[in-house]
UniProtKB/TrEMBL annotation:
Residues 49-168 form the C-type lectin domain. Residues 1-19 form the signal peptide. This is Ladderlectin-like. InterPro entries: C-type_lectin-like, C-type_lectin-like/link_sf, C-type_lectin/snaclec_domain, C-type_lectin_CS, CTDL_fold.
Amino acid sequence: MKLLAVFLLVFSMVALASGDPVPDGGSPGDDQVDLLQRSNSCPAGWTQINSRCFQYVLKPMSWARAERNCLSMGANLGSVQDLNEYRQIQAMIATASYEVKTAWIGGTDAQELNIWLWSDGSRFTYTDWCSGEPSNYEGKQHCIQMNYSVERCWDDLNCADRLPSVCVKKP
């Protein structure tokens, strides 16, 4: 029995001596907070805007190919929830391309005319349509491009046209 007590005492001392010290001014819970913060950050190449991760894809593609490209990265074409988020997405594009370029976002009414949906399934409540849009010109415009005209607003466009795109995903 004495041998077991000595073994447990030595084992306990070794375990305590090999533990990581708490950094000065910190508490044991600080590491947990850091882990939670890191889990909310976006992967390399993605920009965090609000609680989501965005990526600007410069390569021009049709809307469907752009959506498929986003899906391959665990994302969808971007949805826009409010004006502040829209301005931040525009700034991300300007930083990546050195200009404010038109780009696909995930809005489409291809399923039913004038029933606009986001490809990521989020609610379609915020809009920034240009004057006179959506127009569905020649009955062939069912996808949304952003940064259209000098007003940098939304325009419906033929989904087969090729544009850069914006993808979005959760961290």
